[in-house]
Each structure stands twice: as structure tokens, then as C-alpha cells.
Amino acid sequence: MKQDMIVILDMGSTENTVIARQIRDMGVYSEIHPHDITPEALKALNNVKGIILNGGENRVVDGVAVDVDPAIYDCGYPVMSIDHPTAKCDEKYDTMPAEDVIKKFVFDTCKSEANWNMKNFIADQVELIRKQVGDKKVLLALSGGVDSSVVAALLIKAIGKQLVCVHVNHGLMRKNESENVIDVFKNQLDAELIYVDATDRFLDLLAGVDEPEQKRKIIGKEFIEVFAEEARKLEGIDFLGQGTIYPDIIESGTKTAKAVKSHHNVGGLPEDLQFGLVEPLAQLFKDEVRACGVELGLPAEMVYRQPFPGPGLGVRCLGAITRERLNALREADAILREEFAKAGLDKKVWQYFTVIPDFKAVGVRNHERSMGYMVVIRAVNTIDAMTAEIERLDYDFLEKVVDRITTEVPSVNRVCYELTKKPVATIEFE
Ligand code: XMP
User: Fold this and answer.
1) In this model, does residue 411 exceed pLDDT 90?
2) How far is the CA of 421 from the centre of ligand 1 (A)?
3) How many whole angstroms from 386 Cα to the centroid of ligand 1?
4) pTM reported for the whole predicted model
5) How far is residue 423's CA from residue 67's CA, in Å, rounded to a whole number?
6) C-alpha 429 – ligand 1 centre gap (Å)
7) β-strands 237-241, 351-355: how paired?
8) Which residue has the CA at smallest separation from atom 14 of ligand 1?
9) Does residue 49 register a pLDDT over 60?
10) 286-295 and 118-133 helices cross at what angle (nearest 10)?
């Protein structure tokens, strides 16, 4: 890294990430490290300009207050201590009184330069990736989600055709999702992309399975299986690209990246497939990942898309999945997403989708009594997905969506809008 860096030492504060974000927003790169970092490890970091000791409510562990190695003070870096014993974790950082103090420390005391931006980040990563990978090849499971897409774009920029992307269509993707991945990466970015349509494999395995966790397990296991099969067909692959991002690392206990690498994404590959890991987004927060994607020229729909669970429509086609209901769900979901985009709600609402229960309801179509499926609309807002509030969708908007779904998806004769917060409900139905 060429960027100046402020190191935050974690002394048990829940505000570490808030402060790191604050400093990055000032244009200065910041990383969180464990309180017991050794002076050697600290000195091995590049361009450290100063250290913030950030104490907090969890500072006392097993009756003993954690502290830094006193030799840290002799490393020659300016050190500032922040202690907010009464700080609440939901406090908005822009109202934190500490902000000015931090700014003063970062710029006046440490003389940091505000040179942290996506252009520099990308240039640095391209260099680092080339150095790590050399003339070897990198394999990447490209789902089309934000993280894997941005990693792919960054790796393409760095090593071009030395990156081999595998896109597995498990048959539970949303409408046109696989087509978009192929269009963006194969057609526009000229990536080496292997497309595997494994729809039948997944749906055959899932036939008759109605227990949600069992469905998840089958989908997860088969995904690894299909990916591993493709990997074995390839030769000369030394590395696996992964979309690990900073929160994944911090959530694993603020340990160094090395200690937590195995926990993420395509972890769990069989023994015969062991690769070195390339994780160029490991220091970025989610919004920085998006900014990186934009800077790399990825389409906004891809970079700003709503979260979509790994098991895809599989956990929204409730109970035992049938192709008929899955297709109806996919069409209804596409209509909902289209209407959200038209109304500008796609930028406002955190997650919005349809669900299809596994029963039929009575309806009237063409003057005749008929049985049809019911579709449920869900639209929620949340910060961390631990709790969620309902988006108060406009009635005219809802009516329009209902009209379109019941007209354009003939097997559906009822549409409901779900109004339950999390808790007591969860965001997904399964
Ligand atoms: P719940 O339903 O637990 O969902 O309130 C919280 C968030 O997690 C997503 N979710 C998943 N994501 N694999 C994923 O990758 C899963 O199995 C899974 N289940 C739920 C959900 O979409 C929501 O954003």
C-alpha cells in the first residue's frame, strides 16, 4: 500500500469500525488490528502514520483489562487514546464528539495525506495481484453477486485471461441473472468464463425435500460438487480468488487476515483441491466494494443490487420445490423488481422479493372457478439484517404489481403483502 495509514488497535470497543470508516471517509486509509499486535508486526505494516488505541465496554476480559504491549509507544508513531465507556453502538458517527479530535490527530499530529481513494486502491491491488500470482492462473466462482463480480473485474484488470471464472447456474437464479453475468463478463469484459447450467442436477436432488435447512444443505453441497468438478477439468490453476470483505474479517474476532481466511465463500473444497487464496477486497467495507466496482466500470445494477441469498429462489419457493412454482415465482419476482426500478424504489428499499407458498387457492378466471398459486410480496429495510422494518409501499403501486402478476403469470391468482417485522418474523420465509 502506498497510502498513509492510521492503525486502530482494538481494545474492546464496538466503535472500531465506525472510527475506521470515519478516517477512510477523511481520505486516509485505516485498518483495525488486535490490541496485542507486536511492535515488529506493527512496523511491518506499510506507511503507518499514527496509532489510535480504542478502548471500550469490552475492554475487561476475564476480570483483566486488556492493554497494548508498552513497546508500541517506542515505535516512533504518534499515539492517541480514545475511551468511550458510555458510547452506544448505535450512535451515528457524524454526531460523535470525537470526530474533530480524530481529524486533528490524523492530519495535524500524524501529518497524514488524504490519498485513500478507489483509483489508488485499484492501482495498488493490480500491482499486488500481479506480484502474488505471477504467470499462474486463478480460479473464481462467479455468482454475479456484488463481491464476486467486483473481485472478477479487479482480477481481469490485473491478470486478464489468467483468471478463469466459473458461473454455476443452480436453476434457482432470478430471471436473466445468469444471462447478465455472461453478458457483462464474457461479452463486455472478455473474461475467460465457464458457464455450467446445473439446473437439472439441483432440482432433481431437491425434489420432494421440504425442510428449509435440508434444502440449504443440498444446494450448498451440490454447489461445491459442481464447482470442484469444473476445477478438476482445468490445468495449471494455483490460486482461488475470493470475495472476502473487511466485515468478514472483523467479525471473526479482529484477528489478522491470515487467521480467518478459511471461513469464507467457497471454503470446504475437497482435499485434492487446495489453492493459494487471492482476496483483493479483504480490506474494504461493503460500500467501498461498490465504489470499487463502479470505478472498474461494472454496471450499476450489478454493483448496487439488493442482497440475494446463496440458495437463491430455493428458499423462496416454499416447501418442496416444483418447476412450475419456481417458474411462477421467477416471473413474479421479475415483475416486482421491474416495478421497483421504475418507481425508483430499488435505490430506497434494502430488500424486496416475492415468495410462493406450496398450496393453491381458489379463484375465478374467465368466469370459471380455478385453482391458482398465491404470491407474497416482502419489502424490508434494515441496517444489519438482524432486525428489519416494513417498507410502507404505496397502495396504487401495490395494486399495479398485483395486476401485473395476476395477468402475466397465469398460474397465480392471489397476491399478498407481508407486514411482519423482524423479529418476530425473519426476512426470508425459510
Ligand atoms: P433472515 O431470513 O435470517 O435473513 O432474516 C437475513 C438476511 O440473510 C439473507 N439470507 C441468506 N443469505 N444464504 C445467504 O447467503 C442463506 O442461506 C440465507 N438465508 C437468509 C436474507 O436474504 C437476508 O438478507
Assistant:
1) yes
2) 15
3) 10
4) 0.89
5) 38
6) 10
7) unpaired
8) 309
9) yes
10) 90
